[in-house]
Specification:
It is a single chain. This protein is α/β, with parallel strands linked by helices. It contains nine helices and 17 strands. It has two domains: 119 residues, NAD(P)-binding Rossmann-like Domain (Rossmann fold, 3-Layer(aba) Sandwich), CATH 3.40.50; 163 residues, Dihydrodipicolinate Reductase, domain 2 (2-Layer Sandwich), CATH 3.30.360.10. Helices cover 31% and strands 23% of the residues. The strands form three sheets. It has a nine-stranded mixed beta sheet. Strands 3-2-1-4-5-6 form a six-stranded parallel beta sheet, with helices on both faces. A hairpin with a 6-residue loop joins strand 15 and strand 16. Helix 4 runs parallel beside helix 5, helix 5 runs antiparallel to helix 9 and helix 7 crosses helix 9. It is globular, with a radius of gyration of 20 Å.
Length: 368
Amino acid sequence: MSKIKVAIVGCGNISGIYFKNLTKRFNNLVEIAACVDIIKEKAEAAGKEYGIPKVLSFEEVLNDCEIKLIVNLTIPASHAEVSLAALEAGKHVYLEKPLAISREDGRRMVDLAREKNVLLGCAPETFMGAGIQTCRKLIDDGVIGKPIAASAYMMCHGHESWHPAPEFYYKIGGGPMFDMGPYYLTALITLLGSVRRVSGSVKKSFEQRTITSESKKGTIIDVEVPTHLSALLDFADGTTANLTTSFDVWHHNMPNIEIYGTEGSLKVPDPNTFAGPVMLKLKGETQWREIPLTHEYSENSRGVGVADMAAAISGNRKHRAHGDLAYHVLDIMHAVHESSDSGKHILLQSSCERPTMMPMGVQDGELD
């Protein structure tokens, strides 16, 4: 299988783990040929640290016929612009979540990828990790019976206490749903399938936030988006799920994700991670028990979605973190806001296939 030449566009906070994993764990599938950043010094520093041969402009990357895949790690506001330009140039594109800020841009990206006969993929790829894949196997094997309902909670008090530049989390395209919702929704879709109807309630609890991380300590952020969102999701298979995402909660004791079936219940690990624990309690049992992980990729494996796309390009198969999945997640997130604003259920126009389960028994760095 030949290596796919990749360019990373955006050398910010998240890029380090992509550089690390793509140059070491997945270098049998990809070769980072170039890196790009609007601040050239960032790209130069990354190039030096990870041994990337070229620091280019975005235009130069688009014109480089050897580079086949663009990894778009820019901020959410730039996702659509960068990705559409790359797709138009005939490049495969994998980007950080969310797919886009607007449904319209997300739809254009999916349609353009099909028109150009290239692949479009999007984070999070954490659902490909050992934890959620183990849960997928348990559900698909019928261990908890037929799924009936689910609960999911991502609640904290925002990112201004640790992130070096947290302003965009409180601007259009940010907020806990657009920032963290993709992890939870992608996991739920992987486990349960497509969502058909959404009901939502959203609010903004604080008009301003104060940055307490060191680099911008004391800076005031005007909050533009809802920061506490609750949703009821009706899945196509009849399962219902409660989802809450919040930047307004100091402390809580709610689960990351739990799935409730006719034969028992399953505790799904944090979907922002790749590992466990996976906990199971069947009817008649008195205690939860930990289930050994059945799949590979329990460490931080960001970049595995890029590697999977590269394997799909070479092997002429469908990649797992595919564009239809990312668009369905985007559609759901918008529907939560629209339901709250209108006071009505929102019937979704989108759906997607569940990603293919990851193979068992592979070595780290391998995909099938």
